[in-house]
Amino acid sequence: MAKKAKVGDKLQVHYTGKLDDGSVVETSGGKGYTVFAPFELVLGQECDELPPKVQKALVGMKPGQSTEIKVACEEAFGPRFEEWVFTVNRADLIIEEEVLPEWRYHFHSKKSVGPTDPKPGDRMELSLSDGSCVPAVVTEVTDTAYTFDANHPLAGRDLTYEVTLLSIG
């Protein structure tokens, strides 16, 4: 008899997360997509790739089985908060260029300005005056200000996950 997945098991799965319109937002590959590598997880341990509801659906599955799980935004990347969209005057934004492919922006610091300006769609990490950091996307650039959105790109969106259990152990 084939082993069934239980909390604490190390699993390999292929998964695809889709929006309601069918567009793929993330995938580990498999079934019609370029195969990357199976995603590995310990069932029941928090991971960024699969919401808890998807992990719960894996409990009791056998290798080779597939399932489809609908995940409301509250159970995935959370609701969208309009107050997390904010504008910063160019004069208040100091740009620090780093070797990493991401930017870090420091508000009210004495760091030097990098040679390029962020453009709409750029993702970066904002360092706030209290020392905390928040990821954000530039949504608008004007002559006087930048507008940022610190919501997760999938916030407020319901998702459907197709998951195939490949192996246990």
From TrEMBL:
One GO cellular component term: cytoplasm
Record-annotated PPIase FKBP-type domain positions: 8-103
Subcellular location: Cytoplasm
Keywords, comma-separated and alphabetical: Chaperone, Cytoplasm, Isomerase, Rotamase
PROSITE patterns, per database record: FKBP_PPIASE
Record-listed E.C. numbers: 5.2.1.8
Residues spanning the signal sequence: none
Main location as per UniProt: cytoplasm
Gene Ontology terms for molecular function: peptidyl-prolyl cis-trans isomerase activity
Leading EC class: isomerase
Source organism, top-level taxon: Bacteria
Pfam families: FKBP_C
Annotated InterPro entries: PPIase_dom_sf, PPIase_FKBP_dom
Annotated function: Also involved in hydrogenase metallocenter assembly, probably by participating in the nickel insertion step. This function in hydrogenase biosynthesis requires chaperone activity and the presence of the metal-binding domain, but not PPIase activity.
Name this protein carries in UniProt: Peptidyl-prolyl cis-trans isomerase
